[in-house]
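Practice problem: Putative NAD(P)H nitroreductase YodC
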Amino acid sequence: MTNKLINNDFSDIVFGRKSIRLYDENFKISQEEMLEMIQEATTTPSSVNMQPWRFVVVESEEAKAKLKPLIRFNTRQNDTSSAMVLIFGDMQCYEHGEEIYNAAVEQGKMSAEVRDQQLAAIIPYYKNFSKEKMNDVVKIDSSLAAMQFMLVARAHGYDTNPIGGFEADQLAEAIELDKERYVPVMILSIGKAMEEGYESVRFAPEKITSFK
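Answer key — structure tokens:
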């Protein structure tokens, strides 16, 4: 098969989003608006509604200084952004299952009978997951929340940059979380862009899609 990229045939490539790495370091987002954006982001789908995502908003100079050695080549975003949003997956999210389902009953979204039936099936099922399986579940759900947060931030007039290059084995402990329970999923820088950003390309849908 001919490699179209090597032969400079870009017919299967389309332009993608821009990557923002430099922000207005004097602009700060209020904690109230940050919570509003997180609330909007967490309307995203969640497997059996266990909502495993956990957010840590690193906004102070002191906290950013602790984070800086752990984010490899992404220090520019850390230095200039309004905040670095750390997203973790809770490996024991099922412990909140009763609280979540009780709230659904109180709000008239679920009957008590359905709550009891579902919790009786879901909680033991989750508890029996292997570490690897639970890791997959919480990372899928938390990644959905991360993407939704990026869209929400854009709607609020802010720019973001998703960061996967960080010391995953040290991140939780650095911010005083239990590293066995909370697995790092992604870091998002957020703020007011001070540059056009780096434009990327994406494959055309015909290249990556098949219909059966």
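Discussion: The longest strand covers residues 182-191. Students who identified this feature from the tokens alone can consider the problem solved.
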